[in-house]
Write a structure and sequence with these properties.
By secondary structure, this protein is of the alpha/beta class. The chain is built from 11 helices and 13 strands. The strands form 2 sheets. Strands 2, 3, 4, 5, 6, 7, 8, 9, 10, 11 and 12 form an 11-stranded mixed beta sheet that branches. Helix 4 packs across helix 5.
């Protein structure tokens, strides 16, 4: 279908800090669940995968498998649910992924995806990735601010010393230099052929492919970290900007790199970032507000028939058929495209409209 790319409505950035979705990860028993509930208040629904919600006056539902998650999603679509809540927290997201893994594994007769090496071409892994992607997109389509809660996972990283910028090298805490000739490990007697740096990296405790989907979907990735000063005093902080040692990032420009681990400090940090934007709205925005165009097979068929009639009225079927033959080199006719090829039908209709405009038939 013909698109108007000129008269597009300009974006307005929501000035409501609680519009922005997040992935929050931190060590166990850090206070993640409490933080999220204090930040979003009574408008938050906790979808718990662990049998605990020790937060005063919080709303929560426990799920133990993939099917129960789908039941929750159906309930989230109801008007009365959307009236009661405008934010949902998946706590923890890694457990939800394990439910997807179990569901797909059962589809292939496995206890866990990858267990049966005889399954050709990694079909179980591919399906798990697709099921997870579809589940995340289903959640994103709902009118709620999404919060994903995860535990911290520590990776050991070894990189050539020469690969680090001065800024990266100075930002590392607790790193170790491995001189050229050092054995790779106690069990691997190969040696490094150049000076290396070993350090700990902190990331969400989630499968990398699953994490990739969530990371691209949320507005903010925030890391809760425990700091200890030279006197042994502990302080909990939120990292809003990442380094090579931990994953973090904020969609708003100008937010501080680090703030105290409190809802007030986080909210103020977003307000600081929002000062950099001028075309703002005081309405809470959801990702679901950006509507995806759903292709209607029936309407497209009718539009194709109408456009075809315009060429016929002008005795110019030759131009139309020539264009369609070039588009469908396998000889497929537009009238024969099944619902499963609705995208091809949409492309054909768009090209038919362009040609009809050029010819002056519409």
């Amino acid at each position: 279908m013909a698109l108007d790319l000129v008269n597009i409505k300009r974006t307005r950035v929501s000035s409501v800090p609680l519009s922005y979705s997040m992935l929050l990860y931190a060590p166990t028993k850090f206070g993640k669940t409490t933080f999220v509930n204090e930040l979003f208040g009574e408008r938050l629904l906790n979808i718990m995968t662990e049998k605990r919600l020790v937060v005063d006056n919080a709303a929560g539902i426990y799920i133990s498998n993939y099917a129960e998650m789908l039941d929750v999603i159906e309930a989230l679509k109801r008007p009365e649910t959307q009236k009661a809540y405008d934010a949902i927290s998946i706590d923890t997201v890694e457990n939800l992924f394990s439910y997807v893994d179990k569901k797909v594994a059962l589809d292939f007769g496995e206890d866990a995806v990858g267990e049966d090496s005889s399954i050709g071409f990694g079909r179980d892994y591919t399906k798990r990735t697709q099921v997870w992607f579809d589940l995340m997109k289903e959640l994103e389509s709902l009118p709620y601010t999404l919060i994903f809660v995860s535990h911290e996972f520590t990776e050991e990283v070894v990189v050539p010393k020469r690969s680090l910028t001065k800024k990266d090298a100075n930002s590392l805490v607790g790193s170790e230099e491995l001189k050229s000739g050092t054995a790779v490990s106690e069990y691997n007697k190969k040696v490094y052929t150049e000076d290396m740096i070993k350090y700990q990296k902190y990331v969400p405790d989630l499968n990398k492919k699953a994490l990739g989907v969530v990371s691209k979907m949320v507005d903010n990735i925030i890391y809760g970290q425990l700091l200890v000063d030279e006197n042994g005093n502990e302080k909990r902080v939120l990292r809003l900007r990442g380094t090579i040692q931990y994953q973090a990032g904020c969609t708003l420009a100008g937010v501080p790199d680090t703030v105290d681990f409190t809802p007030e400090a986080y909210r103020k940090a977003l307000e600081i970032g929002l000062k950099n934007y001028h075309n703002k709205s005081d309405v809470k925005h959801f990702h679901a507000s950006i509507k995806s165009k759903k292709l209607d097979y029936g309407k497209l068929r009718k539009r194709a028939a109408l456009l075809g009639s315009k060429f016929n009225e002008n005795n110019d079927m030759k131009s139309l058929l020539s264009m369609l033959d070039e588009l469908f080199k396998d000889g497929t006719k537009v009238t024969e495209l099944p619902p499963s090829r609705v995208q091809d039908l949409s492309i054909a209709v768009s090209k038919m409209e362009t040609l009809a405009h050029e010819k002056g038939y519409i």
